Amino acid sequence: MKQTIPKMASIPTQEEVAAERERLKYQKRYRQTLRTTIYALIVVAAVAVLIATMFLPVLQVSGTSMEPTLSDGDVIVLVKNGDFETGDLVGFYYQNKLLLKRVIGGPGDIIDIDAEGNVTVNGELLDEPYLTTKSLGETDLTYPYQVPESRYFVMGDNRTTSIDSRSSAIGCIEADQIVGKVVLRVWPLSELSLIK
User: Fold this and answer.
1) Which of 12, 16, 20, 56 has the most crowded Cβ, counting Cβ within 10 A?
2) Are 95 and 186 in contact (CB under 8 A)?
3) What is the spatial order of strands in the sheet that 119-121 belongs to?
């Protein structure tokens, strides 16, 4: 029987030892940098989510009640703000849904809408350049109508199809239902614009 003699491992040179140490140091720095980067990205993402939910909610438009101002599929940014004026576009909760409508009148205002769809607030005809067609739409209110305290009268820009404060099903919305004011359309990018 033939015996095999194991080969002795060669002793590495100083250069090989230095190169291996350098490789291990690089590997350690790489892992630390990667870990730090991942932690930083997690923190940035958490802060962005917090800002988006607390101050700047972002949402996608669903439906046609705000055409031509906003179309189905548009992505918009709201600013949480408690100061709303006639003409502001707001998002508010109604039966666990977020609806978008335009503020027509505030607490105590007297709203009147004639058969052609002309809207007057406190006796003054409302200038509505955002409309393409005027319409009385679906309504079961008696006009003139006074907006109750701490509530807002809202209407969609597509007056023929929008269900809004003209219907007692929705009625005037309470101030605490309002999430914020629409300020910016961010999608589609070709229509990136401030909303008025």
Assistant:
1) 56
2) no
3) 124-125, 119-121, 110-113, 145-146
Of residues 166 and 193, more confidently modeled: 166
The helix (H) or strand (E) run that includes residue 17 is: helix 14-54
DSSP assigned state of 1: -
Phi-psi group of 68: left, alpha or beta (phi > 0 → left; psi -120 to 50 → alpha; rest → beta): alpha
Q: How is residue 100 written in tokens?
A: 């978008």
pLDDT mean over 58-67 = 79
- Of 5-19, 51-65, 146-160, 169-183, where does mean pLDDT reach its minimum? 51-65
Residue with tokens 């990136």: 192
Q: 100: burial class by Cβ within 10 Å (0-12, 13-18, 19+)?
A: buried
| Active site positions, annotated | 65, 101
pLDDT of residue 8: 67
Cis peptide before 148 (omega within 30 of 0): no
51-60 b/e (C-beta count within 10 Å ≥ 16 → b): eeeeeebebe
Model pLDDT for residues 124-160, shown as the tens digit of each residue: 998 888 888 888 888 888 888 899 998 999 998 888 8
Query: Cβ(164)–Cβ(158) under 8 Å?
Result: no
Residue pair 126/85 in contact (Cβ under 8 Å)? The answer is: no
